[in-house]
Design a protein that fits this description.
With about 600 residues, the protein is mainly beta. The chain has seven helices and 33 strands. This is Monocopper oxidase-like protein sku5.
Length: about 600
């Protein structure tokens, strides 16, 4: 009997410890079934990529330090990876969902991502990272909330509103790929979607009948947090809400100095949070607009997304012309000055980018400097390609991180040049050799006529400067060394440069790429390899038990791994259920 009592008390303690662990860092579980569905966002039926039958996909809504578990089942007819844009994957590039770190999920397979949203808050999104699939959908919002004990730097909003904007083609991603493979341009998009829906018929000449449009209902007098993501292919969009101010509050995980805008340019891959107060008289509904920027607006008029903001006491439908976009066709500095005005709120509480405890990033010694220059597409070996520093990146059959793990030779070269090459462009798998705990300065030089946005996985970067012309050493004199915004996706204007600083404290192999899908597909990317010489689990987590294998390591892939990939959620819940049942039995023994 004494042994039974000891065993019962032991089980009770185990259950208490388990519940404390869950309370410390809770788990959030999601099941994603990624498949094709038929939708008509611009009035004509077409194939789109849905998550759980939804286009856009469901919102992931968690809190700082949560452990997020997403079981992804691939029901497409091609390989799939899901990428969590802006989620830093601290110590775990294994979960990043790009070809440099992960083997793709084959059709009819499923794979479970598990990662912690460590020390992050803010507005992000997820999307499929292969084969230009984002051009067909598969994207959704990813929200990370502050813990209750950490105050936010504004009054708690009445509600959250997610708005996903992006240019859209009636051709699906496979047709767009074929055009690029044949050396052709994608051409002007067919429209702009707001939350997967086409434009409200504000103009019967430009917008045909029968298009389903987005309507967002709000209560008068209330303030909402409006999270806006540009998930499009390649078009910068100006976002505005008729007669309403947009009080900028956050950008990709960093609280901003709060400033009012009547409209804001949101570039491909970027995310913002606005506080919008519903302070109008509701005599009618109001337009929500996302229109193309840095194009010939007279020919791109139909590339405009229009939704409806509907007050609960609205007295009629929206009518009349749309609120005007910035009138700066001949003033290329307007948008850049707007971007420069976005500054980091250094006094706000909450998670911050490293270096932790030090916000004087301008006084930290730079250890490495890279000037990454892109140009107009070039021809290499008879194929149209895009480049960085004269190199068009080729994704190897074996992911870079797997090759390092298993010491597979010849997969990539650790020789990406610090400055643009002077010789002819070339195809290479060339990677930047980052210094662990170094402080890197990256100058993004856009010598193309099109707007570019760049994204770095694994980090938030400090945006310290931007200007037109060629960057020089003297350009550092213009840097913002105190409150430059920290974010993961930055714009680089045509014929201009943007400078960023990043603390390389996150071990792994991290993708740096253009977010313009056509240029990314054609090779405008590379990776930064960050290795701790001590190789300790404190700075990088071990390879996941359910890792997929491909390329030179294909022989390691076992058939049973397909089913075991889904075991995390089942194991967790079954173990907890078993422990609870045993604890109940133990309680009855003690009584």
């Amino acid at each position: 009997m004494a042994l039974c009592r000891f065993f019962a008390l032991f089980l009770i303690h185990i259950c208490l410890l388990w519940s404390l662990c869950l309370a410390e860092d809770p788990f959030a579980f999601y099941d994603f079934e990624v498949s094709y569905i038929t939708a008509s966002p611009l009035g004509e039926p077409q194939q789109v990529i849905a998550v759980n039958g939804k286009f856009p996909g469901p919102v992931i809504n968690v809190t700082t330090n949560y452990n997020v578990v997403v079981n992804v089942r691939n029901k497409l007819d091609e390989n799939l990876l899901m990428h969590w844009s802006g989620i830093q994957q601290r110590r775990s590039s294994w979960q990043d969902g790009v070809l440099g770190t992960n083997c793709p999920i084959p059709p009819k397979w499923n794979w479970t991502y598990q990662f912690q949203v460590k020390d992050q808050v803010g507005s992000f999104f997820y999307f499929p990272s292969l084969h230009m699939q984002r051009a067909s959908g598969g994207f959704g919002s990813f929200i990370i909330n502050n813990r209750a004990i950490i105050p936010i730097p504004f009054d708690t909003p009445h509600g959250d509103i997610v708005i996903m904007i992006g240019d859209w083609y009636k051709r699906n991603h496979t047709a767009l790929r074929r055009a690029l493979d044949a050396g052709r341009e994608l051409g002007m998009p067919d429209g702009v979607l707001i939350n997967g829906k086409g434009p409200y018929q504000y103009n019967s000449t430009l917008v045909p009948d029968g298009i389903d449009y987005e309507t967002i209902e709000v209560q008068p007098g209330k303030t909402y947090r409006v999270r806006v993501h540009n998930v499009g292919v390649s078009t910068s969009l100006n976002f505005r809400i008729q007669n309403h101010n947009l009080l900028l509050a956050e950008s990709e995980g960093s609280y901003t100095v709060q400033q009012n805008y009547t409209s804001l340019d949101i570039h491909v891959g970027q995310s913002y949070s606005f506080l919008v107060t519903m302070d109008q008289n509701a005599s009618s509904d109001y337009y929500i607009v996302a229109s193309a920027r840095f194009v010939n607006e007279s020919t791109w008029k139909r590339v405009t997304g229009v939704g409806i903001l509907h007050y609960t006491n609205s007295k009629g439908k929206a009518k009349g012309p749309l609120p005007e976009a910035p009138n700066d066709e001949f003033d290329k500095t307007f948008s850049m000055n707007q971007a420069r005005s976005i500054r980091w709120n250094v006094s706000a509480s909450g998670a911050r980018p490293n270096p932790q405890g030090s916000f004087r990033y301008g006084s930290i010694n730079v250890t490495d400097v890279y000037v990454l220059k892109n140009k107009a597409p070039v021809t290499i070996d008879g194929k149209k390609r895009t480049t960085l520093n004269g190199i068009s990146f080729v994704n190897p059959a074996t992911p870079l991180r797997l090759a390092d793990q298993y010491k597979v030779k010849g997969v990539y070269k650790l020789d990406f040049p610090e400055r643009p090459l002077t010789g002819p462009p070339k195809l290479e798998t060339s990677v930047i050799n980052g210094t662990y705990r170094g402080f890197m300065e990256i100058i993004l030089q856009n010598n193309h006529t099109k707007m570019q946005t760049y994204h770095l996985d694994g980090y938030a970067v400090f945006v310290v400067g931007m200007d037109y012309g060629e960057w020089t050493e003297n350009s550092r004199g213009t840097y913002n060394k105190w409150d430059g915004i920290a974010r993961s996706t930055v714009q680089v204007y045509p014929g201009a440069w943007t400078a960023i600083l990043v603390s390389l404290d996150n071990v792994g192999i991290w993708n740096i790429r253009t977010e313009n899908l056509d240029s990314w597909y054609l090779g405008q990317e590379t990776y930064i390899r960050v290795v701790n010489p001590e190789q300790t689990n404190k700075t990088e987590l071990p390879i996941p038990d359910n890792a997929l294998y491909c390329g030179a390591l294909s022989k390691l892939q076992k058939p049973e791994d397909i089913s075991s990939a889904t075991s995390i959620r089942g194991y967790t819940s079954k173990l907890l259920f078993t422990l609870m049942m045993l604890a109940c039995a133990a309680m009855s023994i003690l009584s």
